[in-house]
Amino acid sequence: MAHSIRSHNPAQELCGVSLNAPMAHIKVLMCYAIPGRVVGLEDRIAFVDYFGETKKARNDFFQLSIGEYVYAQGGFVIQRISESEAKAVLNTWEELFFKLKEIDSDLAQNPKDLRQKANLIRQKHQGNSCCVHGIIEFSNHCRCDCLYCGIRSSNTAIERYRMTVEEIIDAAYFAISELKFKALVLQSGEDTWYDEDKLLAIVQGILRKSPALLILSIGEREAGLYEKLYQAGARGALLRFETSNPDIYSKLRPAHNLDERINLIKKLRDIEYLIMTGFLIGLPGQTQDDILSDIQMTNSLGTDMFSFGPLIPHPQTPLSGVPCPSIDDTLDTIARARIMNPDARILVTTSMETIDKENALRSGLLSGGNSLMVDVTPAKYKKLYDIYPNRPGMDAEVSETIASVLKLLNSIGRAPVDLGL
Ligand code: SF4
After folding, report:
1. Peptide bond preceding 22: is omega within 30 degrees of 0, i.e. cis?
2. Which of the residues 92, 135, 223, 271 could staple to 29 if both were Cys, CB 3.0 to 4.6 A apart?
3. Does the 124-411 domain belong in CATH 3.40.50.1820?
4. How far, in Å, from the CA of 112 to the mean position of ligand 1?
5. Radius of gyration of the chain (CA)
6. Cα dihedral 194, 198, 203, 207 in deg (nearest 10)
7. Distance 23 CA to ligand 1 centre (A)
């Protein structure tokens, strides 16, 4: 196993994070999902109640009955649990759940600027739900040569790695069973060493051991392969289109075509994957109008989760001299995306922390964002996934990163209730 499993449970340890005022009296018990009770069923849709709030989730995997308890992630029911197990978790959550709502609501009042208005819209439309996904970066080999990317094929200065199928399954098992993640992104460069057999073995191997929402971020692979991986149980696909401007796209992604990328995203949508897509901010030649078109294109693709972030120029790429976008520009883009799409799930990317280490995640969540990712790649590989420089958290223990994320979410009143469909 790639990680060392400790004798205690880090998630339980983290539940002991103490809060500053106004909630210092409440002991935090916070993981990345709250179970809900099924209160309605309609075809493939389960209506799931969380302390009086009902959210919809697609039920592809279980024969459910009303009254049963489930975990849902990304709008999918991913696990059925016993009533006693659910009540044990819910009892610890009940007081905190309503306190968090109050904090979130207080922070959203009296908006004065664009970002605060976006935060109020997020609070009104999406409540205080916030999803936290883990990400395993399992290979930094890539056949593509995108000008903005540190692991592009022509960068011969980086050390390449591939995790074996068994290492990936073990890392996922650790993230799900020990770190308590319920949704995992499996990310790599566009690496065809992972053929159909290997990718199917990874998805099936993970799901055989533990339930989770698996999100694939493996690049432009054949739609037929994605179809098979969906049938094997994967339910999310993360594939950014990078820019809606075809001229910029063709300059930055040699031998690639924006229409083909968009068509693949549409096919993934047709397969019924949960779609995560978006763009880069700060590309050479990109205008404010381009960014507005990027937001519109993200929306028009029927995106389930917006994923966009700043270009952090890598020193071993042709874009090394391009300036980083400012944190203000990035936060304003989150705010505009929220205002244009009140019901969106919007990921606050860790790349923002490279621009503003101390405040980026908090500011992003208070500008309309409602989702975060935590890197759970085994430590020996983590630094090698060098897509951009100065990635945050590379020297931190994953337990430290999780503790700081949970503390942040508690401080701004966010709860890990599924955002629903
Ligand atoms: S952006 Fe993605 S497809 Fe392009 S070089 Fe990097 S990993 Fe490969």
Report:
1. yes
2. 92
3. no
4. 39
5. 20
6. -150
7. 43
Over residues 230-268, the pLDDT tens digits come to: 999 999 999 999 999 999 999 999 899 999 999 999 999
What is the CA(243)–ligand 1 centre distance, in A? 14
By the 10 Å C-beta count (0-12 exposed, 13-18 middle, 19+ buried), 387 is classed as: buried
**DSSP letter (8 states) at residue 72:** E
Ligand 1 atom at minimal distance to the Cα of residue 143: 8
Residue 375 token pair: 């890197």
Closest residue by CA, ligand 1 atom 4: 146
* Whole-number Å distance between alpha carbons of 93 and 157: 49
A 10 A CB-CB count for 303 gives 22
- The reply to whether ligand 1 has any atom less than 6 angstroms from the CB of 219 is yes
Ligand 1 neighbourhood includes 406 CB (under 6 angstroms): no
CA dist., res. 383 & res. 391, Å (int): 8
Q: Contact at 8 Å (CB) between 295 and 250?
A: no
Q: Which fold has domain 10-17+26-111?
A: SH3 type barrels. (2.30.30)
Rounded Cα distance between 256 and 240, Å, is 13
Say if ligand 1 is within 6 A of residue 189 CB: yes
Distance 253 CA to ligand 1 centre (A): 9
Our answer on whether the CB atom of 146 is closer than 6 Å to any ligand 1 atom is: yes
pLDDT tens digit string along 158-168? 999 999 999 99
Nearest CA to ligand 1 atom 7: 189
Name the residue ranges covered by the structural domains of the chain. 10-17+26-111, 124-411
> How far is ligand 1, taken at its centre, from the CA of residue 190, in Å?
7
225 pLDDT exceeds 90?
Answer: yes
Look at phi and psi of residue 255 and say left if phi exceeds 0, alpha if psi is from -120 to 50, else beta: left
